[in-house]
Design a protein that fits this description.
Blueprint (H helix, E strand, L loop, with lengths): L1 E8 L35 H4 L4 H17 L6 E5 L5 H13 L8 H4 L5 H10 L4 E5 L5 H14 L5 E8 L3 H9 L29 E8 L8 E10 L4 H14 L9 E4 L5 H12 L7 E3 L1 H4 L6 H14 L18 E8 L3 E8 L2
């Protein structure tokens, strides 16, 4: 499968295809918020007023992706989200309490469902083709991606718009923070993998909207080729994780020595990062590794940002300084493995290569 175009709204300057992470944005605190664009160039002003923040981000990222590809109506739209429209959900629940469950308007509830973003994209494009949404927690994006790959493989479509969207709101951040998911005190995302973040509990909250147009035929403008995808649930120990990685690469008929770069989902949480630390001393001991969650934060569909990152590294043939890459500078990066896990439960592998 070929990645023909991308659209990405994140806590970094990624929308509109600016120079590739040349000006990384640093945050203070345990929450990273998306840098939102001027939506008026992509969405009708009358519609913007009725859209919640996550719907605006999802629609804008999808539109940017389609514009870059020169596609007006994709053959399929597939979205993945774990949290859905949290702002509308919080609004509806708050009004339930305030109005004692009486005289409630249904608008916030209707717009809080997880398939709202994909449906809104379809409505704006007047696209009646296949439209599906996946809500599989830490596998939400991977499930959407797998569905898109299957549609292309089975020749049910020639191009598929696949995306992942999740937001963090004041209410959801307060709840997750209380559960101990995030670091306490003054934290800088730029120091996440350095002295401040090493060996401590918690990570930093993130959010994002990333879309990709997948095609089954190559073109001159493709970013990269998506070679394979694998997910596995609650592995019992590091040996099982290594076995999954080895079997995945064997299925692609390649070895670890043929991987130029590994992008890991290290997030600054001591318990979560222990898996990556063990792999780095074992199966990844001779590999070149970089991390990315200091750029976008941690959220269930953050792997979509990693895929955007990998695709841009391959297409631009550049390595952003912020990634602190220590591998050979003269060797071009042609094949990238992404290994991520969400809360040590949902594990995924993605293999991307140059076209």
């Amino acid at each position: 499968m070929y990645i023909r175009a991308t659209g990405n709204i994140s806590p970094q300057k990624t929308f509109g295809h600016p120079p590739f992470l040349s000006e990384p944005v640093e945050y203070s605190g345990n929450r990273l918020a998306c840098i939102e664009p001027d939506y008026k160039g992509l969405i009708d002003a009358k519609l913007i007023r009725r859209m919640s923040r996550i719907i605006r981000m999802g629609v804008a990222a999808a539109m940017e992706c389609l514009q870059e590809a020169g596609v007006t109506k994709p053959d399929a739209i597939v979205t993945g989200t774990a949290y859905g429209c949290m702002e509308d959900t919080g609004l509806f629940l708050t009004r339930m309490v305030e109005f004692n469950e009486e005289l409630l308007t249904p608008t916030a509830f209707i717009q809080s469902t997880h398939n709202t973003i994909g449906a809104q994209i379809g409505l704006l494009l007047q696209c009646n083709n296949y439209n599906n949404a996946f809500v599989h927690r830490g596998f939400s994006f991977e499930s959407a991606l797998l569905d898109g790959m299957m549609l292309l493989k089975e020749k049910e479509a020639t191009n598929v718009l696949v995306g992942a969207i999740d937001e963090i709101t004041n209410i959801s951040h307060a709840i997750l923070n209380r559960m101990g998911l995030y670091k306490q005190g003054q934290v800088s995302n730029g120091e996440l993998f350095k002295t401040i973040g090493i060996g401590t509990k918690g990570t930093i909250a993130g959010e994002g909207a990333s879309f990709f147009l997948l095609a089954n035929e190559p073109s001159a403008t493709d970013y990269a080729k998506l070679e394979g995808l694998k997910t596995f649930y609650k592995p019992q120990g590091i040996e099982e994780i290594e076995a999954h990685i080895s079997s995945f690469l064997a299925a692609q008929s390649i070895g670890l020595d043929e991987i130029d770069l590994i992008i890991t989902g290290k997030n600054g949480d001591a318990k979560s990062d222990e898996i990556f630390a063990q792999l780095q001393h074992r199966i990844f001991s001779r590999s070149n590794l970089v991390n990315y969650k200091n750029l976008c934060g941690e959220y269930p569909t953050a792997t979509a940002f990693a895929l955007w990152l990998a695709a841009n590294i391959i297409k631009s043939e550049t390595m952003p300084t912020v990634l602190e890459y220590t591998g050979p500078k003269e060797k071009p990066i042609k094949r990238i493995l992404i290994y991520d896990h969400y809360q040590s439960v949902h594990h995924s592998l993605l293999l991307i290569s140059a076209c």
